[in-house]
Amino acid sequence: MDDMTLDTRLTLAKYEDITAQYTARVNEIGEEFAQNLSAYDAQAAERDRLIAEQLPAIEAAHEAAKQEYLREQQAEEKPASTWTPRESKPTVLSFGAEEVQEAAPSPVPVAPAPVPPPAPVPPAPEPVSARDRYLSFGVEDEEDEPPQRPVAPPPRVGRPVVQRRAAVEEPDDDDWSGRSWVR
Fold it and tell me: Composition bias, kind Basic and acidic residues: at what positions (predicted)?
């Protein structure tokens, strides 16, 4: 270190000073942390001690409440109910032909809605002259003609009523292989 210049020594002194300040600050933070940790440990120990003192009393109160609840439940037991289970009926499943089947009531056919009478046909419109088909500003038309009555639009005709097929009742058959499921 003999060959150090004055500038190098000053720079090294500043570096050592900054390093010492940094180390002192880190040590100070570590000491603060250790103090806080010991304070928290003391609080946790105090809390654990209080819980240990109070836990037997809490458990005893809990057991007493459970016993009282059980006593109340036994005292409030309702008398035997008058409800009796329903008689069970024997269930018979049969898939043979010997099973008696009641005829299902046939559906009542629904009468289709009556078709409204056709609307009267309006009279054919009168032919219009070529002169009346175009817009006129009244300059060429000097003569007075009686106004023509407007032609009423043709009346609307309602949609025709669609007749639906009545459901075909199929014979009672156990073989469903030939059945078409699409109608």
Answer: 70-79
Residues 6+ apart with CB under 8 A from 172: 101
Q: State both tokens at 146.
A: 């009686």
Backbone angles phi, psi at 46, to 5 degrees: -65, -45
Distance CA 83, CA 44 (A): 59
Summarize pLDDT for 17-45 with one digit per residue, the tens: 999 999 999 999 999 999 999 999 999 99
Task: From 154, 167, 80, select the one nearest 119 (Cα to Cα).
Answer: 154
Tokens of 111: 């009468």
143: left (phi over 0), alpha (psi -120 to 50) or beta: beta
